[in-house]
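Is NDP placement plausible here? Inputs below.
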Amino acid sequence: MAKLISGKEVSAKVRAQVREECEGLKAKGICPGLAVIIVGNDPASRVYVNNKKKACAEVGFVSEEYALPEETTQEELLELIRTLNNKPEINGILCQLPLPAHLDEKEVINAIDPIKDVDAFHPSNVGRIMIGDYHFLPCTPAGVMEMIHNENIDVSGKNCVVIGRSNIVGKPMAMLLLHENGTVTICHSRTKNLKEICACADILVAAVGRPKFVTADMVKPGAVVLDVGINRDENGKLCGDVDFENVEPKASYITPVPGGVGPMTIAMLMKNTLMAAKLQANA
Ligand code: NDP
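Reply from A.M.:
I modeled the complex. Tokens:
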């Protein structure tokens, strides 16, 4: 039976550390501030934005929400970002993705001042991650690493397999495991012999976006299984990319969905915002 890595517990620890550091900064007259931009009426984005605001309040940050209508133009959005880039009380800027189809996501990400890019999506921050000289890490992969560290799992020399190669999860995830000396394989929809590759993994990260994609026959006995996926199963119930029920008895550690990687993402956003405030104040 696997040990469950609770994202609720680990994220609470991270938030408590951030809250404590935030109090220290406030004593020096520095109050971290996060601006969250949301364009349109996507209900899932609304939930994420509300959760981010709640987390800010809990750790003691100021948060500002900019809810823009669906028909916002690219120039209006860029103008807001320019204003926030120049606003000293705002240390972190986050533009909730996906944006409505008529907006150019890439240009929006590029417009955010890299020192306020708490999602770590700006090409300059992505490049810094590549060379291992970074201030911010993308929140979801950073959250997975935090869970690994919290259990004192040594990545060095381990076969690590990441399923998924998106810019926000798969690729940076692989890079972070590589920085810790894992032997990393990235799999995707064109990968041949996916099952066999996964079955060799000591550490398996699933970031596919397909319910119960990772089945027990893809998992090495004793593997550490980290499930990034957030999906709905055939009954509309929240589930991950891993067939939890059948994989759990085989793994040494596993993250549940919900209550696994999900809560870590917001906690790491708080950590990045704190870092942004410290960098901008030279604190
Ligand atoms: P993307 O859709 O951007 O990427 C999915 C990746 O999975 C792609 O690289 C794709 O390959 C690969 N893939 C799809 N089908 C297969 C297959 N049959 N075999 C092998 N690989 C496959 O998703 P994201 O990376 O953004 O997100 C992944 C999951 O994580 C989603 O469920 C998402 O909701 C969740 N998520 C959770 C977060 C959290 O806070 N817990 C945060 C962000 C995401 P290819 O590139 O070849 O198309």
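Short version: DSSP finds ten helices and eleven strands in the chain.
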